[in-house]
Here is the input.
Amino acid sequence: MTTDAYPWSAGFRSLEEEHDYRLDEIDGQVPAWLRGTLFHNGPGRNDIGGKWFAHWFDGDGMIAAVRFGDDGMHFRNRYVATDNYRAETRAGRVVNRGFGNMRPGGVLGNAFRLPANVSNTSVLMDGDRLLSLWEGGAPYVMDPATLETRGVEDFGGKVKAFSAHPKRDPETGELFNFGVDYGAKCTLTPYRLSKGGLTALPAITLPYAVMNHDFVLTRNHLAFCIGPILQSPLAFLLGLKSFDGGLHWDSGKPTLILLVPRAGGQPRIIETDAFFQFHFANGYEEDGAVVIDLMRYPDYLTVGEAARNFWKSEWPAKGMATLTRLSIDLASGKVTSRTWDTGQANEFPFVNPASVGKRHRHTYFLSSPPDRPRGLQQRLSKLDCETGAVTHHDFGPDGYPGEPCFVAVPNGAEDDGVVITQVFDAARKRTDIVGLDARNVADKPLFVGRLTHHVPFCLHGTFTPRPQ
Here is the structure.
């Protein structure tokens, strides 16, 4: 199977092997205070039976864990043993519907069959267990030490869909999330998870069937920006189209800003100009306004096509996202926006977890420089939201970093910590674990741990100070 369409294409190759080893090659020094485990989730198997999957989001979930201990760095990866992974491993071919995949058998083989849960998008520490997340279904429970799959957690039947972007209030410890469910009506259900107990807030009926991936948590609200990326539920349910095939952008409809009270009560819906976003950096409330920082796309067209073609896409920078701040005046409902000069193709934003729901100063994200009109991002960038200063660490010409994860120095300032990212080296066809000084990401890395293989491009991760 060819994977040489572009330098980054080989980074999507499946990793069939499950590893467990201590890293022998580490350049630089891991800070003495950095102890714990970084978990990432992403599509680990992107092809089967000699054929690429129809969409990047169809890949079977694989957890990659990097432990930082007194004995050095340790890597372990395990597939999430979903029903889909086990069935398709046995068959050696696609047997279930997915985000883009269709089952064999044409319309009759796909009608009234929902996409299989591939649990491939994110991870969450919930007490002593690790939850593997995929927004179309319930989480899978993993053992954080061994990465053994224990089963599905639907919280006593309360959860059907559970988003891959939960938000934890750093002061109360409460976790908030949501799920979008499709049927005769499209509903969004917010959830509160506290001390192991899940409470479903009142479901919100949306005016049409949409796809929504993320939200922000503020002091008083869960805030959503629901762009007009619409689903054709009838064509999907009848087996005429995949979920991805049923999505279409309707620029004639507005983006809906949905403000859901944390304490309960009726949500507020504010209409604004159409845009799309996958990811938010953070949100907070100040001076009678809700402030939201997000990666804003002009529409879904460019990013949708790139994710559909993933390994063979040129990933064009034009039409991709820009780091944007929205301010919603709570009295008038007026929406204003501003952008920063942060380069092209901004994505995968991350802030210090202690800043979630509060005014933050620093945001870390991926970007591309103006002279690179195509390709996956090669820079890890930092924005000072107060001064507008932007600094970059460029991994070019061969390095392609993944989502940055901020690990804070205990009791330090907001940007006192280490930013860790997985970097695929297209020349060596291997992945490095790179730690940058969060105060100055442009500096030489604090450490580079070299894996003996590649890790397929991941999506989202989390750090826990427990060693596992």
